[in-house]
Amino acid sequence: MSEQRLFGVRLTTESLSEAVRRVVDTAKRREGGCATSLAVHGLVEAARNGVYRDKLERFNIVAADGQPVRWALNILRGAGIVNRVAGTDFMDRICRACAAERVSIYFYGSTADTNRRLVETLRSRYPALTIAGREPSVFRPLTEHEDRDLVERVNSSGAGVLFLGLGCPLQECFAAEHLGNFAAVQVCVGAAFNIHAGDRARAPRILQVSGLEWMYRLLQEPRRLLRRYAITNVIFIYLLSKELLLELTCM
Q1: Euclidean distance between the first and final Cα of the chain, in Å?
Q2: pLDDT score at 203
Q3: For the chain (length 251 residues), average pLDDT per consecutive 10?
Q4: Nearest to 69, CA basis, from 9, 109, 125
Q5: DSSP code string of 140-187
Q6: What's the CA gap between 245 and 79, in Å, rounded?
Q7: How confident is the model at residue 191, as a pLDDT?
Q8: DSSP one-letter code for 108
Q9: N or C: which terminus of the chain carries fewer CB neighbours within 10 A?
Q10: 3-class secondary structure, 214
Q11: Among residues 153, 195, 198, 203, which one has the least CA distance to residue 178?
Q12: CB atoms inside a 10 Å sphere around CB 145
């Protein structure tokens, strides 16, 4: 596994297939661990927030989700990443591998209705998939008692993979804080819960490969995402331009 730093944030540069393989192999050994993939929003949050950045340092996998993140790593660091590790694809490929290799999974996050439809979709798609359990988010910090009970439920279920759909950066903070508590690998996938459940449509392929998937999401949820994207996209362009200028001046 190779690593690079972008805007001070540690990122791993394995392909989607390599990341899936690493998660499933670790899950089969029930060794715990954390995995996520960052789009522009998550990367900028980590670049601006030292506490969040430090939490990501504890992750086994911090892959490039958004195409702009992949492009920046390839241009600035020569990472040679062929395909991004999009959360939606990451979740689907892990489920496919877990179904084939008899690794059970657990879902934590989103609403009860979304959580239910997510499980129905994945069971239909992968009939051999063993779902050890599922539960929605309570949309507030867990009490100490609730937290202890959640850990007990997941561990006693025998799950090898725990998918977290709590949203960035909350899900990564949760995973880092619970590292060592869960025997399952915690995989942060955010909006993948909603997409696989059918709550939201995924952007057309041409927008995915051109780095404009964020625009499609913005059109779906303008009130929630407009301010976020207005800030983080501008900061990303600024940080990228700053690093490119530094590279040119050092040549």
Answers
A1: 28
A2: 66
A3: 89 93 95 94 94 96 92 89 91 97 96 94 95 93 94 96 94 96 96 89 69 70 72 89 78 59
A4: 9
A5: SPPPHHHHHHHHHHHHHHT-SEEEEES-TTHHHHHHHHTTTT-SSEEE
A6: 19
A7: 87
A8: E
A9: C
A10: helix
A11: 153
A12: 8
Nearest to 190 by CA among 76, 19, 37: 37
Q: Which residue has the tokens 């877990």?
A: 98
Note the pTM of the prediction, 2 decimals. 0.91
d(CA 120, CA 116): 6
Q: Residue 179 is encoded by which pair of tokens?
A: 């590292």
Q: Which one-letter amino acid corresponds to residue 179?
A: L
DSSP H or E run through 35: strand 34-38
* Contact present, 35 and 9 (Cβ < 8 Å): no
Q: Residue 242: how many CB atoms within 10 A of its CB?
A: 11
